[in-house]
Amino acid sequence: MSTTAIPSAAGSGSAATDKFKGNRVSSDTSKERAAAIYKDVLTKLGEVIFEHEVTYAEYRVLKQWLIEIGDGGEWPLWLDVFLEHFIEDSNSRIFTGTKGSIEGPYYVPDAPNLGSKGTMPMREDEKGTALVFKGQVRDLDGAGIEGATVELWHADSDGYYSQFDAGLGIPEWNLRATFSTDAEGNYEITTIQPAPYQIPHDGPTGEFIASYDGHPWRPAHLHLKVTAPGKRLITTQLYFQGGQWVDDDVAGAVKPELTLDPKPNAAGVDEVTYDFVLDPVSDARYVA
Ligand code: DHB
Ligand code: FE
């Protein structure tokens, strides 16, 4: 068995923080809505404190840990693992197309476009089992959508994402690409199957997990963003049926509709078909 390299929290965390900080974000939240949300958050936090009779020592440990998470650049890691799945679920419940899942901290826009069919950028000696991943992008009526974009990014077989590799020298766009569906809405991608992935746990996020005797594993996954003009952008992930940690994802981001079961094709290469169904843009608040 090969050993799985562990991306250091300090390395990939600060890269994720720098990328996030590079893009100033805003929301049009009203003062009334902000007041309602903050009041509820604090009231519910207060209830937990009373329920568990949280001690002063525990409060001080929390304060110290919050400072360390920030100093270590680990907010993107911690938030995307432990909170993002609630946000995603809450925002996607009204839609009927393909289910979404969390984006995680390692998305980079504008990956090279390879048309409707191609092989992901990878190193000559890229490790991992080949995978042909293909399908169709459709609307809710079942019609194929020409020119839909399918962005795919995933970790290598050691669990590293390009551009967040803590100085390992992985090429910039390794295992990241954009595809555009053909006239029938079809795409076909050749890549390698990623391995299960440990979120970086050598820093305060790891301390948090160890403090409740948890584990840092996510099941192997492909990250995707799929959209087309007039259609809702879905950000999602696909997992491998029966794979390790599929039933116990540290990030709580697996949904049963989002699993793949590749089988060898005529050429003996693992292949799987996954079709995406896009909702029309119906409610501006929910356009990601
Ligand atoms: C994290 C990494 C991922 O690849 C992912 O999908 C979600 C979260 C993380 O390290 O925080
Ligand atoms: Fe990921």
UniProtKB/TrEMBL annotation:
Stretch list, region Disordered: 1-25
InterPro entries in the cross-refs: 1_2-CTD_multi_dom (IPR043029), Catechol_dOase_N (IPR007535), Cchol_dOase_actb (IPR012800), Intradiol_dOase_C (IPR000627), Intradiol_dOase_core (IPR015889), Intradiol_RC_Dioxygenase (IPR050770)
Residues annotated as domain Intradiol ring-cleavage dioxygenases: 133-161
UniProt GO molecular function: catechol 1,2-dioxygenase activity
Keywords: Dioxygenase, Iron, Metal-binding, Oxidoreductase
Keyword flag Glycoprotein: no
Tagged with keyword Transport: no
Comp. bias intervals (Low complexity): 1-17
Enzyme class, UniProt record, top EC level: oxidoreductase
Protein EC: 1.13.11.1
Family, per entry: Belongs to the intradiol ring-cleavage dioxygenase family.
Protein's name according to its UniProt entry: Catechol 1,2-dioxygenase
Organism name: Dietzia aurantiaca
